[in-house]
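Section 3.1: Structural characterization of target chains.
Under the original work plan, the team committed to producing a structural model for every single-chain target entering the pipeline before any wet-lab resources were allocated. The record below documents one such target. The sequence was received from the expression subgroup and is listed exactly as submitted; it comprises 623 residues.
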Amino acid sequence: MRAYADLEQSFKNPPDSAKPGTFYLWMNGHISKPGITKDLEAFKKVGIQNFIVFDNDWFLPHGGVVYNSDAFHDCLNHTAAEADRLGMEMSMKNCSGWTCSGGPWVTPEQSMKTVVWTETRIKAGDVGVQLKPPKATREFYRDIAVLAFPTPKNDDYRLENWFGKSLNDKKAMELLKMKTVKYDMFAPQTKPTPEDAVISAESVQALSDRMDSSGNLNWEPDTGEWTVLRFGYTSTGIENKPPSEGAKGLEIDKMSRAAADLHWKSLLDRVAKNAKKHKSFTSIAIDSWEARHQNWTDGFDKLFKERCGYDLIPKLLCLSGRVLESTEYTERVLWDLRRTASDLVYANYFLYFYETCHANGPSLTVEPYGPAPFDTSRVAKLADWPMTEFWYTGNPNKKAKGWSWTSQVVGSGVRLSGKKVLGAEAYTRINGDWTAHPFLMKTLGDRMFCQGVNRFVFHTSVHQPFRDDVQPGMTHGKFGFQNHRNNTWFFDSEAWIKYITRCQHILQTGEHVSDVLALEGEERAFWSFPGSEDLDLEWVRGHKIDFGGIGTLGALSVDKAGFLRAGHKGKLLPNRYKMLVLNKASLMSVETARKLGELADQGVPVFAARPFRTPSWHNAQRN
């Protein structure tokens, strides 16, 4: 009865930690201290407790306060001081724009990188051959290797979706006019390659030491026609977007700690030092990934060999779509490429930010998804405050495609790491036309509560830098539902926000219970694509499901009652699962198969498609 009475009392008067937050957008240098004070006081009045400062632009003239200038940091400190006074919490997006981590201090050498190449046909007797360098982006290019092979009779054949499997957005754009590699491009090709298109691994000649600095090749074949590929890497050219004037620049190399460190020292070191002066300044944020893919970094070949146990250089032909030795051989090499890329992005981007934030005071907030080589579940388990998102389309009963995926997977990462709070960028709109209001939005919010979300962060509240008679004030163009003090219903939203707060408190206090644990298999080597991907688990409808990455498998055990249990950092988590399901399990490592067998032997029902082989080239002999 005491526990019930305490719960009843806290429901009536929930703590500040249960209150929702908001994205707080500063638009292209239009920032004023009086406006900040009025904005924050308005937030506090209606029950918004925390906010994330974003610096964005959307086709506006500049307002005068340059990002990362003394004036900008002065406004940031004023915001923190006012949040201190009001008893609020604040965070800051780690760069200008909503994605991802970049700015004018990032040189092409420190930017995201991709493999490029040129092809030259030569035959016996050709002399004075010059190998053209691949096209450089931002005037940056470095050689990797020169390889030659006898030109196959069927030289037009390429592996299915080779540009996707090699994480090559440039080729995806060139060949299919696609902005980025998509989620459905990674299933291994099962049909054999025509024999006249296969290149023997033994026939490949390494000629890097036969090319001079001008590209002149001091080599000719003895007989026949050969193809020579000059491989190198350049910048992807991807920039942060949409930044304010003066804050635009290249995205940092997500596989390089040196690049991440440059970004931190150029911007966030000052932010973190000033944050220590303010109790309210608690977190640095990384928004959802919209920087596309990269498949190379300085020294990638050495890092690859350390992780995979073999030399990638003689097998670089696989990145050009050609089939080396066999379809399976080529697929295995590309799987190892993706796995290495995923590991490096995790270690040198997300883990770097987590460690550096903690070393300097703030926590780390992350929306861990987007078309990129990393594992959503793994990053969600790492972050202090993982977030999902959901969009409001104008129809309260219509589900926005894909966002159930992010709430499912990120929420499962929260639960599989023993955390209690799943944040969500809430009610994002792409038609910010002032027609959204709480009566229409409540139904969608209730649905997201049922999907595990228990901390709304509204999208979006735009800073109002002008006089009070300038109405309706500043907006973020077509984005967001105009959740600021100039909206006619803003100060009447207090009851709605109290309802949200009470729901969030109950959900944050209780224990989420799931019946089934589903894990994403090893088919892709990473798992991060929202927006268009179903969970492939229709047959377990009616049951609550936690959906994690394959990395969770090693932390599973069976308790005395026969239930499947997950652990995290040595702690056994409370949820008791009745079943284990593996999704996309056509490829499976020996270690995974062995662990599944151990769990099945202990009585756990395990459901997975029969795999047809192991994924990696390194363990091909263990198939």
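Residues 327-360 form the longest helix (34 residues).
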